[in-house]
Amino acid sequence: MYAEERQQEILRRARAAGRVDVVTLAAELDVTTETIRRDLTSLERAGVLRRVHGGAIPVERLGFEPALATRDEVMTAEKERIAKAALAELPEDGSVIIDAGTTTGRLVQVLPTDRELTVVVNSPPLATVLAARANLHVIMLGGRVRGKTLATVDDWALRPLAYLNVDVAFMATNGCSPTRGLTTPDPAEAAIKRAMVKAAQRSVLLADHTKFGNTYLSTFAELSEIDVVITDTGLDMTLAADLAAAGPEVIRA
């Protein structure tokens, strides 16, 4: 079993049981406890497990939300592939929403310079990058800035979205499952995401494979409301088929 396969199995067991134990995992997976501890460290850095004494707990059981800087350091190659694949969903001209997030942030970095677009964002860091581009018209949604995600939320961000009609919304998520849809830990941020999806003719989810199977406190969209899911090749094929059966096209970049 390769390290990635073993880590996915550890994550599956943690989510099924609510907790995993280092010694038990080592015995059942036929590896050393040091190997398991390294696996748990990798999964914690990916933001999907939280280390506890003797083992680990899936973050959704704790309501734990890693900070933006922590999330930006993991799955970087996968996020870059996802962002490049998302360019195919851009309109030739028109308007888009780009949700706050680390994978959507990669999309901001690779936006073409030969296309005039109106771009709506709820992330001050992303707005700063976009505003320097002469071919883009940037609309920044105001409101309270959440420290965890640097996303603007609450009424000042919600009100403008009620009057916007954009071609495509590029969405980020903390969790996604066929039964619970797209979820995030914070209800205020979920409200903004829900309004973004509603404001768009098409919605495209950008999420690496570690986000799938997670469920957090607040649902902001059903899979049937998403037109395209762009993820990486680490997503299990069976899960990909389940996602597609719920409505969206699934692209593994």
Describe the secondary structure blueprint for this structure.
Elements: H1 3-17, E1 20-21, H2 22-29, H3 33-45, E2 49-52, E3 55-58, H4 59-62, H5 68-72, H6 76-86, E4 94-98, H7 102-110, E5 117-121, H8 124-131, E6 136-140, E7 144-145, E8 152-153, H9 155-161, E9 166-171, E10 175-177, E11 181-184, H10 187-199, E12 200-206, E13 218-221, E14 228-231, H11 237-245, E15 249-252
Parallel strand pairs: 4-5, 4-9, 5-6, 9-12, 12-14, 14-15
Antiparallel strand pairs: 1-3, 2-3, 7-8, 10-11, 11-13
Whole-angstrom Rg? 18 Å
What's the tally of helices?
11
| Strand order of the biggest β-sheet | 6-5-4-9-12-14-15
Mind summarizing the main beta sheet? 7 strands, parallel
Average predicted confidence as pLDDT:
90
Q: What is the count of β-strands?
A: 15
* Helical content (DSSP H or I, runs of 4+): 40-55%
Describe the protein's architecture and organization:
- This protein is an alpha/beta fold.
- Helix content is 40%, strand content 24%.
- It contains 11 helices and 15 strands.
- The protein has helices at residues 3-17, 22-29, 33-45, 59-62, 68-72, 76-86, 102-110, 124-131, 155-161, 187-199, 237-245; strands at 20-21, 49-52, 55-58, 94-98, 117-121, 136-140, 144-145, 152-153, 166-171, 175-177, 181-184, 200-206, 218-221, 228-231, 249-252.
- The longest helix is centred in the first third of the chain and has 15 residues, at 3-17.
- It is elongated and about 55 Å long.
- The two termini are 23 Å apart.
- The model has no long low-confidence stretch (mean pLDDT 90).
